[in-house]
Recover the amino acids of this structure.
């Protein structure tokens, strides 16, 4: 049973409900979008839907054992983070001819970030070396969406709606995703509880806000063409 004094367990419960609600919202709102934006909203719903399933299990692991659900956490991220990378590609591909190489560069960087973060947290390699390599993957993604090919395509060929979505998404990937390294750094000093509260907050902000940005762009684009 959930103890009212278990702050970490409460955050798991809140995020579980929020992910389900967001999934339902994005799915229903898909009918308001047109063309390319329907696919983007479908991906947004997939992100929160997959997260909801894993949060049900993570919540149970924490409440029953008071231990970090590391495997469930990273399986979730291994599925949802690449889907978020797909969103960037979908937005760009809808407005221009985009090289497949760009997609694979972003995808590989996201996998490097996740795999080495997991190896460090799971104790399968040096904790801080895993952190450093994972951070390198994240920094490459930031370079690509702020100064690289992805950024240049958006600036040169984007519509008003696509530019709004792209700019908001890259702020989430930079500012929102910065919460995850804070949790990673906090664990050795503050323990598993602090780590999971920070990670839960980050997922709430990044997965749901990420979808909301797509929804705003999708509905505004539909209105502008009506």
């Amino acid at each position: 049973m959930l103890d009212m004094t278990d702050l970490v367990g409460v955050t798991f419960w809140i995020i579980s409900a929020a992910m389900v609600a967001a999934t339902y919202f994005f799915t229903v709102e898909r009918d308001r979008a047109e063309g390319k934006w329907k696919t983007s909203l479908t991906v947004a719903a997939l992100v929160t839907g997959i997260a909801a399933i894993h949060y049900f299990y993570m919540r149970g692991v924490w409440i029953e054992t008071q231990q970090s659900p590391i495997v469930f956490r990273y399986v979730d991220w291994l599925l949802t983070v690449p889907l978020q990378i797909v969103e960037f590609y979908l937005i760009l591909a809808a407005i221009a001819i985009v090289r497949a190489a760009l997609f694979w560069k972003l995808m590989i960087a996201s996998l490097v970030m996740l795999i080495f973060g997991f190896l460090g947290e799971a104790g399968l390699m040096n904790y801080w070396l895993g952190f450093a390599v994972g951070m390198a993957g994240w920094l490459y993604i930031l370079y690509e969406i702020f100064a690289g090919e992805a950024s240049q395509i958006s600036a040169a060929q984007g519509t008003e709606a696509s530019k709004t979505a792209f700019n908001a998404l890259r702020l989430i990937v930079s500012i929102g995703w910065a919460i995850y390294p804070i949790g990673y750094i906090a664990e050795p000093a503050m323990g598993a509880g602090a780590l999971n509260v920070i990670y839960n907050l980050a997922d709430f902000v990044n997965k749901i806000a990420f979808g909301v940005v797509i929804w705003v762009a999708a509905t505004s684009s539909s209105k502008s063409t009506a």
About this structure: Residues 7-225 form a domain with the Rhopdopsin 7-helix transmembrane proteins fold (CATH 1.20.1070.10).
